[in-house]
Amino acid sequence: MPHQYFPGSASLLEELDKKLMVVLRDGRKLIGFLRSFDQFANLVLQDTIERIYVGDAYGDIPRGIFLIRGENVVLLGEIDLQKDAQTTLRQLPVEEILVLQREEQERIEAQQKIQYKVMLDRGLQPVTDALYEDTYS
Amino acid sequence: MLFYSFFKTLVDKEVVVELKNDLCITGTLHSVDQFLNIKLLDISVAEPEKYPHMVSVKTCFIRGSVVRYVRLNPAFVDTELLQDASRREANNIKGAA
User: Residue B67: which H helix or E strand, with range?
Assistant: First the structure.
């Protein structure tokens, strides 16, 4: 059992050198090869791309090598090729996905603004993101 | 270490892990470590249309610090045993101090 050698995150040993998707606390998704890790789940990813999802589309940005501080990691997923082949997502060029992402962000912000206004009108103090720093998107 | 031991008894059982970002992942518990990091096999996600990046993932490692709840089937939990174990652990701590 690897547990005896490395009590921290023994289960990551099996993922070394595999292509993984890492979800970060700020909602970003990175896909790369796991080259190193430690007991805090600090990670080194090689040949990383950042994948941006908007609706049923996605786009990839080449990023290179990442050293990720463990506290920012939400989860590491192993991509199953069989399941991957069944998805109906369509890939878009980087420029297009960035435009879509910005539009979506603006939509969300506009909606939030309305929500805050309604709350203020009813005498409620809207909770801003700063208070919710611990709830990861 | 009580909850670590407890989670070890749940290995190979189906659990639902709810994360602090509201993502709910159902899967078979493969392993757990001292930080309560969790490894799940054969996962499925609630509201997959909201989380398109999760649909092609089959096994995943979840950092313990981002977990909000782990939902368990009550049939897998012996509450009396758990209560006894926590008393024993409390006594051990008292004895050591």
Answer: strand B67-71
Q: What is the 3-state secondary structure (H, E, C) of A114-131?
A: HHHHHHHHCCCCCCCHHH
Enumerate the residues of chain A whose CB falls inside 8 A of the CB of residue B55.
83, 87
Choose among A23, A78, A89: nearest Cβ to B52. Answer: A89
Q: How many CA atoms lie within 13 A of A43 on its CB side?
A: 34
Q: ipTM strictly over 0.90?
A: no
What domains does chain A contain, in order, with CATH numbers? 8-132 (2.30.30.100)
* A108–B contact, CB cutoff 8 A: no
Domain ranges of chain B: 1-96
Whether CATH 2.30.30.100 fits B1-96? yes
* Minimum distance, in Å, between the CA of residue B71 and any CA atom of chain A: 18
Quickly list H helices, A11-132: 81-86, 94-121
The reported pLDDT for the residue numbered A83 is 85
Residue of chain A whose Cα is closest to the Cα of B51? A53
Residue of chain A whose alpha carbon sits nearest to that of B35: A8
Contact B63 A74 (CB under 8 A): yes
pLDDT tens string A48-75: 999 999 999 999 999 999 999 999 999 9
